[in-house]
Amino acid sequence: MLRINVLLKFCAAILIYNFRNSVSGEKMPVVLWHGMGDTCCFPFSLGGVKKFLEAELGAYVKSVEIGNSIVEDFKSGYLIHPNQQVEMVCATLKNDSRLTNGYNGIGFSQGGQFMRALAQKCPTPRMHNLITLGGQHQGVFGLPNCPSLSSKTCEGFRRLLNYAAYTDLMQNFLVQATYWHDPLNEETYKNSSTFLADINNERYVNKTYIDNLQKLNKFVMVRFNKDSIVQPLDSQWFGYYKPGQDKETESLRDSDIFVKDRLGLKDMDKQDKIVFIECEGNHLQFTKEWFRRHLFPYLQ
């Protein structure tokens, strides 16, 4: 009888909580993670997105800032290892009382794979839906038109990554090296990548990553069809070059990660949890109307 009473009280508490939320109209909070060459708060980028979502959704929106200033946040996109960034953001979100009941995560460009790493490594508070815009889930093999940097600097980074991406120095020094995926040297990539190969379970299967990722209600990936930055384009939908060459690509469903279900994506696909969306613009170029129509359904 005691157990039944406890169970009844527990169920009643859940019903009361849900009723109060429905009456108050409380919206699911949103957490944003910026990409390379950006910050949390530039008014012409994520600062503007934050205001737009707050006004349209009436929800609490948190734009992730790495470090203690805009300058540090900008540098983090190049110089602070993604694993360290994920730890920092996880601690920040845990200490935010407004996120206690969870949030929807949106990652922009490289912030997409960082936000996914957060879902896999930091289950508390819970991420309900994950949206990535122009994310590079299978990495990149090239840095054309990299934002916020001169073409000379871009070319310098490209040369460093082509010849030394998998050295300890580069893996610890340059963020982009940690998701540089050389399809001509798959084994070297898998053995040396200190971020992407780990979160994609390509060295060994971390069951915790699978369990945490499968807690998502929806995993939404947006691909920009005229993207001039992400190579290959298919990485935005978790596809990549076929192993051993850099010309032909394969989709997520044809990839080793999916076929062998190393990350639990096959099961998620069967449950209709994976959503592929196209946008016709260049990298991260979208309108408010496009955002409303395609992404708002996953932010309610």
Number of strands: 8
Total helices: the number is 13
Mean pLDDT: 89
User: What is the molecular shape?
Assistant: globular
- Roughly how much helix do the residues carry, as a percent range? 40-55%
Rg of Cα set:
20 Å
Name the beta content range: 5-15%
Ends apart, CA distance between termini:
39 Å
- Poorly predicted tracts of residues: 1-24
Q: Pairing-aware structural class of the strands and helices?
A: alpha/beta
Largest sheet: 6 strands, parallel
How do the strands of the widest beta sheet line up side by side? 2-1-3-4-5-8
Written as H for each helix and E for each strand, in order along the chain, the element string is HEHEHHEHEHHHHHEEEHHEH
Catalytic activity: S-hexadecanoyl-L-cysteinyl-[protein] + H2O = L-cysteinyl-[protein] + hexadecanoate + H(+)
Pfam family, one: Palm_thioest
GO molecular function, one term: palmitoyl-(protein) hydrolase activity
Family: Belongs to the palmitoyl-protein thioesterase family.
Question: What is the structure about, briefly put?
Answer:
With 300 residues, the protein is α/β, with parallel strands linked by helices. The chain is built from 13 helices and 8 strands.
